[in-house]
Amino acid sequence: MKKLFVLLLLTAFVFSCSSDDNEDVQEVMQLEILNNFDKDIGLVRYALKNNLGTAGIDVAVNITNGKSRKIILENIPNQSPIDVRIQVNCDNTDWNKQHKTLTVNVNDGQTTLITVVDTQSNDDASACCSCFDLVN
What we know:
By secondary structure, the protein is mainly beta. The protein has helices spanning about 1-15, 50-55; strands at about 30-35, 40-50, 55-65, 70, 80-90, 95-105, 110-120, 130-135. The strands form two sheets. A four-stranded mixed β-sheet has the order 4-1-7-8, with no helix packed on it.
């Protein structure tokens, strides 16, 4: 009887120390947008490569010059190329917006950085709303 009790106790101990609970945990995949342009970024759209129009996910943001924001990517498989479209607000009207798209690779547990940079060579950057580029 003692042997049976010890065997049951040992079996319970072995199963309680199992690490099977952590096998399904997926690390967070993030996209960080850094704005180095003098206009505000108002919208980020992302999707698997070539699917922006049909399956894109919109994230409303307000990223001012010199600031950044991290976005947790949802429904994206590990090591996938994604298209990221960033919309710049030129002024307070709905019709005056510019956007550009960049393809980047993303991985579980990593943050992929995209920097919005000014491409205008003169000092009057406020005159050109489309004078930006996306750099990975």
